[in-house]
Specification:
Elements lengths: L3 H15 L4 E6 L9 H8 L4 E7 L2 E6 L4 E5 L5 E6 L8 E7 L3 E6 L6 E4 L14 H9 L5 H6 L9 H4 L1
Antiparallel strand pairs: 1-6, 2-3, 3-4, 4-8, 5-7, 6-7
Protein name: Formamidopyrimidine-DNA glycosylase-like protein
GO molecular function: DNA N-glycosylase activity; DNA-(apurinic or apyrimidinic site) endonuclease activity; zinc ion binding
Pfam family, one: Fapy_DNA_glyco
């Protein structure tokens, strides 16, 4: 499972590699977790230029010009693969973004649990890497719950603190 620093690095590197590229099409291989159809994804995203990739909690958000974004939650075993048209495709593709220049970004998961979401909702829960120390201190003062349990509660902090809490 990718941790917050991994996702932060993914967002930085994907923005560097894909910013300014125009999406040709969204290829949906597994629609099990989709809340929007492949047609809706293509109508919203195809033909638009990628602006940036950001991390929001445990999700990557790919923002496109035109106002739409695609959220990618890798869950436990999800991965991302960048490849060029004509290269061997990665195994276990869930969704692939095919850009006009031949670059492809695939989200893969052998368990088929990784989740793509069109225009994911913004969360009001603070991000674990941007949390306000005084707000956390106030939260801890109000509870007898162990610190680790509070830090791992996604209703308190978005993201996963498991490695920091061991």
């Amino acid at each position: 499972m990718p941790e917050l620093p991994d996702l932060q690095a993914f967002s930085h590197n994907l923005t560097k590699r894909l910013k300014g590229k125009t999406l040709k099409e969204v290829i949906v291989t597994v629609d099990k977790k989709l809340k929007a159809s492949a047609t809706e994804l293509n109508d919203a995203l195809a033909g638009h230029e990628l602006e940036k990739v950001e991390r929001a909690g445990k999700e990557l958000r790919i923002d496109f010009k035109g106002g739409h974004s695609l959220g990618l939650h890798l869950m436990l075993h999800g991965n991302l693969a960048l490849y060029n048209e004509g290269d061997d495709k990665p195994k276990f593709e869930i969704i692939t973004l095919a850009f006009k220049d031949g670059t492809h970004l695939a989200m893969t998961d052998f368990q088929k649990a990784a989740t793509p979401t069109l225009d994911p909702e913004e969360s009001k829960v603070p991000d674990a890497l941007d949390a306000d120390a005084s707000a956390l201190a106030a939260r801890f003062a109000k509870t007898k719950t162990p610190v680790k349990t509070v830090l791992m509660d996604q209703k308190v902090l978005r993201g996963h603190w498991q490695r920091l809490c061991r």
